[in-house]
Amino acid sequence: MPKMTKRLKALEPKVDRAKRYAIEEAAAGAKECATAKFNETIELAFLLGVDPRHAEQMVRGAVSLPHGTGKEVRVVVFCKSDSQIADAKAAGAMEAGSDELIARVSGGWTDFDAAVAAPDMMGEVGKLGKVLGPRGLMPSPKAGSVTPNVGAAVSEIRKGKIEFRVDKNANIHVPVGKASFTPEQLAQNAAVVIENIVKARPASVKGTYLKSCTMKSTMGPGFRLDCPSLVARFSNIAN
């Protein structure tokens, strides 16, 4: 929770704590409350009714935001062939390569936002788990970041493809844009994220899956969404 500063106290009357908001209302409210002196990130925070200790209840995936994230995404690519390195760099990768890049990351360098790997590199990349894993940077076939088409993967990520993964406390945090976005852009990005997380419900989960969903800016108060209506809205799409 942000510290209850004078600015945040002034924003509190804009939030009805007893209300559960529609996506469009929450997007407009989060943008209105993003009054800090920088372009705040708008994000969704989920609490899911899963037990991440069980592999079959791990919720993970990737989604392409229709309006991007509003952030310049730094991508590195682990690949061997000259053609893949050229494709990755042409698509905007900040670094691409094999042994030298592996050694650099092994030494603790993680000044990037996403990583892509060619399949034949995963034997070596897997050894970087202690460095990449805790930061959510490990390439994953399920998320589409382990692929021979590294240039296409880099392009998708830079255009707004983001990964989501439930943490050990059953939470997921996903950025859906910046305060400079319009409420409509924020709402459309948020809807795509929520749809994908509803789709990702594990078959073994019993009871309430989407326990809470809140939209907020970096320094602003949260707007809690109406979870039953979200499930009803996106279940038909998911099915």
Description of the molecule:
There is one protein chain. This protein is α/β, with parallel strands linked by helices and 239 residues long. Helix content is 33%, strand content 20%. A 4-stranded antiparallel sheet has the order 7-1-8-9. Strands 4-3-5 form a 3-stranded parallel sheet, sandwiched between helices. Helix 3 links the parallel strand 3 and strand 4. Helix 2 packs across helix 8. It is globular, with a radius of gyration of 19 Å.
Please give the structural blueprint:
Layout: H1 6-11, H2 23-32, E1 41-48, E2 60-64, E3 75-78, H3 82-90, E4 95-97, H4 99-106, E5 114-117, H5 122-125, H6 129-132, H7 150-159, E6 161-165, E7 171-178, H8 183-199, E8 210-217, E9 223-224, H9 227-238
Parallel strand pairs: 3-4, 3-5
Antiparallel strand pairs: 1-7, 1-8, 2-6, 8-9
Helix pairs in contact: 2-8, 3-7, 8-9
Proportion of residues in extended strands: 15-25%
Instruction: Compute the number of helices.
Output: 9
How many runs of DSSP E, i.e. beta strands?
9
Radius of gyration: 19 Å
Distance between the termini: 35 Å
Structural class: alpha/beta
Biggest sheet: strand arrangement: 7-1-8-9
Biggest β-sheet strands, sense, barrel = 4 strands, antiparallel
Low-pLDDT regions: none
Share of residues in helices: 25-40%
Order of helices and strands: HHEEEHEHEHHHEEHEEH
Mean pLDDT: 93
What overall form do the CA principal axes indicate? globular
State the gist of this model.
By secondary structure, the protein is α/β, with parallel strands linked by helices.
List keywords for this structure.
alpha/beta; three-stranded parallel sheet; 9 helices; 9 strands; 33% helix
